[in-house]
Amino acid sequence: MINKLKNLDEINLSRLKHIKFEFNSGEHIAILIDHEGYEILKGYGDSQMVALNDLHENLI
């Protein structure tokens, strides 16, 4: 599956159930949220993909 996805442009980001994206002060933010809407963890970057990768790196 990972080999088939070359970039996030192939994914409809709005369909990710527990991740929301924000753009603040020129920086993209990927936020992991729980089922009640509380923000658990954030990742930052100069694009949504970089922010999502930063979020993932913070998890591991």
Automatic annotation (TrEMBL):
It comes from the Bacteria. This is Uncharacterized protein. It comes from Aquimarina spongiae.
